Amino acid sequence: MSEWTEERIDSLRFMWSEGLSASEIATRLGGLTRNAVIGKVHRLKLHNRVGVAKEIQANTPQVKVAEVPKVAMAASIAKVVVRPAPRIASTAAPRLELPEMMGSVLKPVPLLKTLVDLNKDDCRWPVNGERAETRFCCHAVSQGSSYCEYHRLAAKGSGTVSERLAARELRRAA
DNA sequence: CCCTGATTCGC
DNA sequence: GCGAATCAGG
């Protein structure tokens, strides 16, 4: 059984806004089918994805999640980092790249803890994997949020269409 | 056949 | 509200 927690919904919103397909989102969230994701998308009235997201999807090569090399995955998560990212046991490998929509807020390098290792003040933004294998960002949370500043803004920025457009404008101006 | 989202409707 | 089944299509 899996339920639509706030965090999973935030994650869904973000991934959907970034142009990931319903099935990709389903495997990353775990315990869901693509039908469930599509159903939720409709209930949230998120179904009108805007231009850029469509392009991302069209230009994304179709690669089986389990076949993506771990090295490639680590590189896509933390492309700003030179040192190798930590080893990850999960077979799920996201090619999610967070948008540079946060102005001067630096993209955190995920610490990739599992749920059981999460501390109270660790950012709970799911980075990859499913269920027990899910790894989280784990950087210090912003006050009043379950996310670090970067992911707090990421979740917020992927809310409504107007918010996304505003975020896109900010990015362009920066 | 692989995949995509959209819709319906019993639960 | 949820999501399997189904539809329509690439």
End-to-end gap:
43 Å
Cα radius of gyration in angstroms = 15 Å
**Which percent band covers the strand fraction?**
under 5%
**What is the total number of structural domains?**
1
User: Which range best describes the helical content: under 10%, 10-25%, 25-40%, 40-55%, 55-70% or over 70%?
Assistant: 25-40%
Q: Counting H and I runs of at least 4 residues, what is the number of helices?
A: 7
The helix-and-strand class reads: mainly alpha
Beta strands, count:
3
| Biggest sheet strand line-up | 1-3-2
Average predicted local confidence, pLDDT: 61
Q: Which blocks of ≥5 consecutive residues have pLDDT under 50? A: 51-104, 157-174
Sequence of secondary-structure elements: HHHHHEEEHH
Gross morphology is globular
Main sheet: strands, sense, barrel: 3 strands, antiparallel
Write the layout of secondary structure elements.
Elements: H1 6-17, H2 22-29, H3 34-43, H4 51-58, H5 70-77, E1 113-114, E2 126-128, E3 135-136, H6 149-157, H7 161-173
Antiparallel strand pairs: 1-3, 2-3
Helix pairs in contact: 1-6, 2-3
The chain binds a DNA duplex (11 and 10 nucleotides) through residues 4, 21-23, 32-43, 47, 57, 62.
Describe the 3D structure.
- It is a single chain.
- With 174 residues, the chain is mainly alpha-helical.
- It is built from 7 helices and 3 strands.
- It has helices at residues 6-17, 22-29, 34-43, 51-58, 70-77, 149-157, 161-173; strands at 113-114, 126-128, 135-136.
- Helix 1 crosses helix 6 (149-157) and helix 2 (22-29) crosses helix 3 (34-43).
- The longest helix is centred in the C-terminal third of the chain and has 13 residues, at 161-173.
- Mean pLDDT is 61; it is low at 51-104 and 157-174.
- The chain binds a DNA duplex (11 and 10 nucleotides) through helix 3.
- This is GcrA cell cycle regulator.
